[in-house]
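Lecture 7, part B: from sequences to assemblies.

Below are the input chains for today's worked example.
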Amino acid sequence: MILHLDMDAFFASVEQLDHPELRGQCVIVGGSSNRGVVTTASYEARRFGVRSAMPMFEARRRCPHGIVVPGRMRRYKAISRVVMACLRQFSPLVEQVSIDEAYMDIKGCERLYGPPVKMGTAVKRAVRDKVHLTCSIGIAPVRFLAKIASDAHKPDGLTILAPDEVMPFIDRLPIHKVPGVGPKALKRLQTMGITTLGHVRHIKPETLTHRLGKFGHRLMGLAHGEDDTPVTPWTAPKSFSSETTLSQDLSDRERLLRQLLHQAADVGRQLRNHGAKARTVTLKIKYADFQQITRSTTVPHPIQSSEVLYEQATRLLNPDLLHQKIRLIGLGASNLVADHTPEQMNLFDVGPTGRVDWDSVDQAVDAINEKFGRNTVNKANLIDPAAKPR
Ligand code: TTP
Ligand code: MG
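Predicted structure of the full complex, as structure tokens:
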């Protein structure tokens, strides 16, 4: 069985959560100018016909008392991460497909969580307890039906399609609800007299592929309740790197270190964005004669901080390596672990002044740079000495 979860009126619900005065109100998230469009609307506003992607002037016309709020993507992303982590507590087979939507393969979960209805209820409760928001869940034997089921009783719905309910459900299912049926396909299907997915079974497969191409073949499979699209959990990249071909060949260590400082900032940011830490740091050098070498080091404490990456890179850039001019320099981080992996603290590493918490420094710098633009805060030694002070 496959479970599909979709948060209810996601951005609007987050606004209502964070601003209690908006609860029970018609909330419209989107660009407030009349040229803006609606991103989403609370269920209260949907009663007045406000919909996602509708021009804002139209939304205001339909719902003049609606409260228009701009979106706060960072906040929605943060909540999305918590929701996904919540799902992963039930099974590692989770595939996130959008900011508020994920599939989970729940095959084998029965022993732990009981029948689908219990499992669905438990997931909904876990999400509500963690982020104080409601979601809708669909559970079905195949992926496309799980998605349709989650939409069937929104908001706060739980819809389960048992295997023996699948065919009757398909027979009644309006064709426009089938994922992949866009306006063009819908028109063609309608001209063939098809209004439900069940009707598709009565058409000759050749006719269907003739009219709809490859999608016709898939649609016939769906009409028989067959959809072998698996749930594919996201897998982390194996490494991150940053490299630069220099504008002129160099053997000046100071100038090469400045490149590495930039690259450490870049690789550190990639690690933090992906929630990963690296055990191995690699320096890559291509000499003027195109000969290439790498030097690596593996550290006991996985690294995420740009500062610590730079420290390691500095050690790797041994003066012996500068016997010839360099045309390309690069820094890589590999041997990754998730950043919540528990780690052994070093008992003897703490100096009299204590340790600098570079992870917190990086997080603060990332937050400022994300809000105000790249390089708003930067290392003093990345400032070009030739540039005039502002
Ligand atoms: P949806 O899940 O499609 O919509 P929703 O969660 O707001 O409402 P529903 O209860 O029907 O699921 O999309 C999730 C979020 O993605 C939504 O809150 C806002 C954003 N979004 C856009 O930015 N643009 C769009 O066109 C749509 C449809 C959604
Ligand atoms: Mg949603």
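Note for the exam: Residues 6-7, 10, 100 surround magnesium ion (ligand 2) (CB under 6 Å). Keep this in mind when comparing with the next example.
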